[in-house]
Design a protein that fits this description.
CATH topology of the largest domain: FAD/NAD(P)-binding domain
Order of helices and strands: EHEHEEEEEEHEHEHEEEEEEEH
Oligomer: single chain
Strand content: 25-35%
CATH architecture of the largest domain: 3-Layer(bba) Sandwich
Bound molecules: NADP nicotinamide-adenine-dinucleotide phosphate
Shape: elongated
CATH class of the largest domain: Alpha Beta
Helix content: 10-25%
């Protein structure tokens, strides 16, 4: 079957695009690897800046988005897209189950956690090394942990972990946090959080479980050891752009180059949410992208008809 539109990824951007596409009367389908949908916010403890939903859990907000899309009758396929090709009539999207075709595609695959790339990180992953405080934090109740990074996620993770852990070290490579001021102020008032500025982790050590980390102070070049049971790594995002090669342009970090109109360099291919170059990666901007991308798809179809 030939669809008008295939949306790849069902996080906030993809689900918003699905709703707008349905309301625009497009024959659209949304692909996601998980039947749950929702993307990264499912792992977010609390979303406090999405208008109208103060303090909602990421899981609850993700479920609300999906329920809204389902109520409108949006079509979903649980499958992992593996490749996108240009065809004579539009595009084909290869998945781990089948190949489907459409006149236009919106990429909304989002981004994943970056790694530190230090010794011990891979070996002890799942054995004290984690990339998701809300998923794994409960295993570290009353224990000492380190969080690495200085962005919103690291600071939110440290705040979240401080509620159950004995001690939380926040290790940041500079002496200034990148996170929103409101989060910084909240973090700095928590007594069991210790800030370790100007420092990077050199190695994560332990036998079957994280036991300690070696930390280098990059200002005075001194090395120290901190005993921790867990290390939560929150050093930014890696875009999920592997399935697309030459049909779009990428910036130096691998994000797909596009503007507010969500168009890529190939007519008929659009990108929405965390995957595209943008100033602010948040739920509200992802949702807004989904709407803009579908409007651009409609403009594209109208131009083709004219
Ligand atoms: P981010 O904002 O890119 O921050 C990454 C942090 O990790 C930075 O502090 C960076 O240091 C540090 N870092 C990067 N590579 C490192 C390395 N190799 N070693 C040590 N430190 C390293 O990423 P994020 O916190 O994951 O957030 C991702 C996006 O989601 C952001 O746009 C964020 O605003 C958004 N977000 C928003 C909310 C919210 O609004 N509530 C919640 C979560 C996430 P430097 O500062 O020195 O570069």
């Amino acid at each position: 079957m030939m669809y008008d539109l295939i949306i790849i990824g069902a996080g906030p951007a993809g689900l918003s695009a699905a709703v707008y596409a349905k309301r625009a009367g497009l024959k659209a389908v949304t692909l996601d690897s998980s039947p749950m949908c929702g993307g990264q916010i499912l792992n977010t403890y609390e979303v406090d800046n999405y208008l109208g939903f103060k303090g909602i859990s990421g899981m609850d907000l993700g479920i609300k988005f999906k329920v809204h899309a389902d109520a409108l009758g949006c079509q979903f396929i649980t499958a992992t897209a593996t490749k996108v090709n240009k065809t004579d009539n539009g595009f084909s999207v290869e998945t781990d189950k089948e190949t489907i075709e459409s006149k236009a595609v919106i990429f909304a695959m989002g981004a994943d956690h970056s790694k530190l790339g230090v010794p011990g990180e891979d070996d002890l992953s799942g054995m004290g090394v984690s990339y998701c405080a809300t998923c794994d934090g409960a295993f570290f109740r009353s224990k000492d942990v380190a969080v690495v990074g200085g962005g919103d996620v690291a600071v939110e993770d440290a705040i979240f972990l401080s509620r159950g852990c004995n001690k939380v070290y926040l290790i940041h490579r500079r002496d200034e946090l990148r996170a929103a001021k409101i989060l910084q102020n909240q973090l700095l008032s928590i007594p069991n959080v210790t800030m370790v500025y100007d420092s990077v982790i050199k190695s994560i050590e332990g036998n079957d479980q994280v036991e300690n980390i070696k930390v280098l102070n990059v200002k005075d070049n001194t090395e120290s050891e901190i005993k921790v049971d867990g290390v939560f790594i929150a050093v930014g995002l890696k875009p999920n752009s592997e399935i697309i090669k030459d049909l779009v342009d990428f910036d130096e970090k691998g994000f797909i180059i596009s503007d507010e109109d969500c168009q890529t360099k190939t007519p008929g291919l659009f990108v929405a949410g965390d995957l595209r170059t943008k100033r602010l990666r948040q739920v509200v901007t992802a949702v807004s992208d989904g709407a803009n991308a579908v409007t651009s798809v409609e403009d594209y179809f109208n131009r083709q008809k004219a």
